[in-house]
Amino acid sequence: MPIKAIIVDDERLARTELKKLLALHPEILIIDEASNVDEGVEKIDLSHPDLIFLDIQMPGKTGFDLLAELERSPKVIFTTAYDEFALKAFEVNALDYLLKPIDPKRLADAIQKLQAEIVLERASLSGNQRGPLSESDQVFVKDGEKCWFVKLQDIRLFESVGNYAKVYFDTNKPLILKSLNALEDRLDDRVFFRANRKHIINLHWIEKIEPYFNGGLLVELKGGEKIEISRRQTVKFKEMMSF
Question: What pLDDT, on the 0 to 100 scale, is given for residue 129?
């Protein structure tokens, strides 16, 4: 099965040169291209590529801004004329970082790495890209200048903070501009449970459960957080967990 890719770069000549290099890799199918971030977001949301070849410095918005606007992040290979963004690119778990002019050998190495990852993921994913976000899906989280790619299975807790949600993974707690209701609509309810008005918990991260005030429950997550399950949600929780 070919790997569907989109090129996002504001320089037409750079897109043309990359397409010439990729002609030597028939496993990569270029399905579209875009010259700016807004066009790129629109085309990525429409065609759900496996991979983006993404320039960083573009007029108006950067490649990092593009990733922050995507709901589900494909694999990313950055292509740029500047090496100053390399560290930040790898902080967000980009698959690779290619400096222009792109070296054919470096491109081949990046594609080999990509193929190995996609083979593993296709073996484990159902392939349903339009349903709820599954545990294996990877999302892009941006908070100020910091950004991460995170698998949902590694997120143990979402906490409402006004119009934002705090995302708990590893030792990080970035804020994203999403309401808890919007998150709940997109998450797999077999894994992510609305414990109360302010919290959604990952059921797989529960370490301890004990009775709590007013007929509710208190759960302790493996990260150490203690979250109250409201009395109303406790009924649903017990049904789900087969109490």
Answer: 45
